[in-house]
């Protein structure tokens, strides 16, 4: 614990100020927390006469942040809230998020969205983790045009959570303009991220808060006797860090469940001293992807006819054909590179 944290020995106004700042933002990184804590520690020090000069953002350490997070958790646990942390899948920057530790996270959206809008969000999640998450193309993301086309429910769609619609929903859907506003709000509230290539995907906060719901909703726990259960898992974890993976790399063998975040591969294969899949022992290609890079495009469809495929299961060819058909009917995932 740093000198600054030692100066705050019990829950007081500085802890309350930190918690209020956190609640206002929902997520924080250490870099974002530094100026917040520097202002709080400066004010607390002046009021208690514990320090002679201002605390600068650079003076705030991770120990200071961890102290305030731990103290805040002690205070909010009775209210079924918790500050958790995870690493961003692309940058590996640690993200702290305020999450509800008990209730169904989907129902929490009711504070910001109507029942019809929540039903739309469920349809978008179904598209991410079912339509756009097949053995050949584990995209787990969605383009804006495909998402907005889900503004009204299809008559033959699989219902999420075995419910016909969200309670209170009219079942008629929402307008495309409303759908666009909901998607924008989901990004602003930290549930979705929108990439430079115009894909929506779940944010670190959403993956932390929705982890249990995603596994329960999309992983098929029932498999035929003698079949490989891993083939039924839509939600997989990185082999190295054990966190949910929605972007990264996969084994070249489609039936192999091994997945690795891009950044996790660096340390993992450095320790392994061999670029082979830790499960099936085939060579790790670093060219088979999870996330938006797995989306079929005009260029990679052309190159796939000339590039030799190594140790790829036969089922992929059928799946690749299916997803191209989905592209034409579900918003054109393969519209651009």
Question: Care to describe what's here?
Answer:
The protein has 337 residues and is mainly alpha-helical. The protein is built from twelve helices and eight strands. The chain is globular and about 60 Å long. It has a three-stranded antiparallel beta sheet, with helices on both faces. Strands 7-6-8 form a three-stranded antiparallel beta sheet.
| Relative helix content | 40-55%
**Would you tell me the structural class of the helices and strands?**
mainly alpha
Number of helices: 12
Oligomer state equals: single chain
Sheet-strand content, in percent, reads 5-15%
Largest sheet: 3 strands, antiparallel
Q: Give the overall pLDDT as a whole number.
A: 81
Number of strands: 8
Rg, Å, rounded = 23 Å
- Large-scale geometry: globular
**How far from one another are the termini?**
48 Å
Order of helices and strands: HHEHHEEHHHHEEHEEHEHH
Spans of at least 5 consecutive residues whose pLDDT stays below 50 are 157-164, 223-227, 314-332
| Sheet with most strands: strand arrangement | 1-3-2
């Amino acid at each position: 614990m740093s000198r600054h944290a030692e100066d705050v020995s019990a829950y007081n106004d500085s802890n309350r100020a930190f918690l209020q700042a956190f609640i206002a933002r929902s997520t924080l990184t250490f870099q974002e927390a530094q100026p917040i804590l520097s202002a709080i520690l400066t004010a607390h020090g002046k009021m208690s006469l514990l320090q002679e000069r201002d605390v600068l953002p650079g003076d705030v350490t991770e120990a200071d942040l961890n102290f305030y997070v731990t103290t805040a958790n002690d205070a909010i646990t009775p209210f079924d809230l918790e500050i958790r942390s995870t690493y961003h899948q692309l940058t590996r920057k640690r993200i702290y998020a305020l999450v509800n530790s008990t209730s169904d996270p989907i129902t929490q959206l009711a504070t910001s969205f109507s029942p019809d809008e929540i039903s739309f969000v469920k349809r978008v999640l179904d598209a991410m983790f079912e339509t756009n998450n097949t053995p050949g193309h584990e995209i787990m993301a969605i383009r804006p045009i495909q998402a907005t086309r889900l503004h009204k429910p299809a008559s033959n769609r699989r219902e999420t959570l075995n419910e016909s619609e969200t309670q209170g929903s009219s079942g008629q859907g929402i307008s495309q303009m409303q759908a666009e506003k909901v998607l924008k709000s989901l990004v602003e509230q930290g549930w979705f991220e929108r990439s430079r290539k115009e894909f929506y995907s779940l944010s670190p906060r959403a993956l932390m808060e929705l982890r249990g719901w995603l596994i329960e909703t999309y992983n098929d726990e029932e498999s035929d006797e003698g079949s490989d259960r891993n083939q039924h898992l839509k939600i997989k974890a990185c082999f190295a860090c054990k966190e949910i993976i929605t972007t990264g790399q996969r084994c070249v063998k489609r039936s192999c469940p091994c997945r690795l975040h891009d950044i996790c591969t660096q340390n993992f294969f450095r320790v392994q001293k061999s670029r082979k899949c830790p499960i099936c022992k085939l060579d790790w290609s670093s060219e088979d992807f999870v996330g938006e890079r797995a989306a079929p495009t005009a260029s990679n469809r052309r190159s796939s006819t000339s590039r030799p495929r190594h140790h790829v299961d036969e089922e992929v060819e059928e799946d690749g054909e299916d997803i191209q058909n989905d592209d034409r009917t579900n918003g054109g995932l393969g519209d651009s590179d």
